[in-house]
């Protein structure tokens, strides 16, 4: 066992898309767990779009990552040492360790993961924060009703694929949006979307709107928002009266909107909310971890039985996390993006 | 009793602010009530900002008024003839008659008004659609809690003054926005706002935001939206986490936004909704008339006792309705705008 650990720090703030220069690979001494803390050797870490937001120096859910600070991430691994009776060496645990090879956290910030119940990677995706985000946002703010129509983008990602599958099980027509023919085929064949549109096939929001209109002959009742930009502009005029828009992300606008989406103005948004009596709710799952046991009780059996499916895209090595992250932001991943650390 | 009636029709659609040429004064034969219908001679009609939206040829709550069609309005008056057992000549009734001297409506579209319970004009304002709008939007979507801070514009109007008084009674800090020193004094002295800001005193949204920040030291929990534009731009960055924005109007944007509010972009709205977990709900009171008895039971006694106050601005004569309407859209009225017809 090494006396050292590795981490990836924020070297500088990106303008627009992150580049390799925004990250630095650092080596430091392995930390010693303090009172009540647990030392974990991480096996897998998660890469998610929200991390892009943390790289900006702007008010968000949480304080931004400081320059020189460790990039944030959820990660899962094996306990090496514990100063808490709740964890023993050899146990597996999930926590917000960051982009690191090892980390210490207080035991009450960790969740035990049972490696005999299936691959521990699911704690990062379908049974982790992304899965909980889709489940919570759809049920709490989407309020799905059988016979309605739902639209979600990033349809093959860990949030979109959960939303689509849960909505389909609830009796809704599900229309996905994804980037590329291969992802669209995956959305329909693996995740059961009724239709999936390739946003790259449409030159602008108007063209995408026309295709969405054809795919949603009864209009759109729920738009699960995780991308904003062109998709939002295409969707808004198609929303039905009393429609719902849960907002958990806006990946196309992280780092600022670059003069695109010119017809998507503040008055257009506000007018649609008013004249169609829309309910628009922003949320971030860290405020709703109290719902985790309810989610697990309902969804874990559906994962075990294969009734809800998931897909993972696993990169190798902490040193490759920045490249995997940058590729993911451009849609290069196929399924939940994870980094294997050991 | 004349055999004729008068009405005001939409002569042409306005571009921006309406002008006298957009209206025409018409005389026609007094209608005869059909089966189940009631003929009413109107005494008072209501003028409200939503009517501006109806003049545009665009999707709104309802179909726009057709060229040559009668302008819409709620009005209250005396029954002249009735083909329904529910109404007798001499009864008073409220209904959506329009800008007219007389009108026929089915009895089931009318509400009886008791002239012995107070002035019949309250059926157009504090105990009519504007009062119900404020009460419903505040309770259903604003979810006020004691100790929170509420902001509402058009604070001396029939919706804003109801919202402010109900919120104050619920233990909130209430901050109004109005146009002019006289309205601001009225808001504080008559309607009990803790502070009222004169939006005309602030050159732009940034200056208004600074004043609002000082008036709301604990941030804003509820922004009751009826104006949009500069006020919305000033308010959004001051919203607290888990804030609520009921949206019942956007008077500053009717007829289109004129290149103002340049910093109020779609991404700014969406980002605030996301990172502060806001709940934004559009609504229009015509979908919630089933709540009217609940409202009356709760609020009518508070009007009778003087615990909730109201103010009316009464213009004289149907022929002067267009001028009163145009003045109201520019903030020229003081209290609920009504037109006396007889």
From TrEMBL, chains A, B:
The Swiss-Prot or TrEMBL record annotates one GO molecular function as: oxidoreductase activity, acting on the CH-CH group of donors, NAD or NADP as acceptor
Q: Where is the Enoyl reductase (ER) domain?
A: 19-339
User: What domain of life?
Assistant: Bacteria
- Alphabetical UniProt keywords: Oxidoreductase
* KW Oxidoreductase (keyword) present: yes
Q: SUPFAM superfamilies, alphabetically? A: GroES-like, NAD(P)-binding Rossmann-fold domains
Question: Can you name this protein?
Answer: NADP-dependent oxidoreductase
Per the UniProt entry, what species is this protein from, by scientific name?
A: Parasedimentitalea marina
